Fold this protein.
Amino acid sequence: MRRNPGPHREPSPRGPWRRSLHALGRQLRPAFGGDLGPLGRPLDRARSRGRLLTAFGLLIALLLGALLVVRGVAGAPRQAAARAAHLHRVSAVVLAPLRPDATAPGYRFDSGQQATVRWTYPAGHTGTARIEPAHPVLAGGALPVWVTEDGRLGASPPTTAGLAVLAVGIGTGSWLLLSAAILTGYTLRRRALERRALRDWGAGWAAVEPHWSGRLRGRPGNTAP
């Protein structure tokens, strides 16, 4: 007695993750020598392997870029504090220029002009330098500057936000450079495989075409039907 198979059930659709894994499996099988089909060639395996390695390299480049960004942003406060610890903000005196038409202390330095300033740091050490004031100042006035522990003029310490932006730029730039190098290598490899395929196709056609077209049948000594 035959058993009733019951109502026909449609196969449940694959979810997005299963579809992605299935598509990845289709790419991996030819790369490792499987699922090439009856017409598969070693050249097809090389092409599949190139696509696989390129995708893997792009993923590694993305992870490295993200790692640089995360480490840089997380370490920005510590780096800013470490650099600021070796700098000191002191008040410097703006000196009058040595010009006969300039009178101290009423001479005005506009933004973009070079002004000579003098400060005392550390105790007993006097330093001078020429700087461009960010705003107009008068000779004899005070101008804050950043100096190092040994009394030399230094740049202002970087901010946490500035270092974080720099880390994002370094990580993004590293990712773009690595990705460009990987894609360039893949393009060169693909072109080399295409030239190889054309050579193989030409050699195969040269061997088959005389028999296929029948040109060898009329030649003396040819016993082919």
User: Anything to note?
Assistant: The mean pLDDT is 79. The helical segments are 16-31, 42-84, 160-213. The chain has three helices and seven strands.
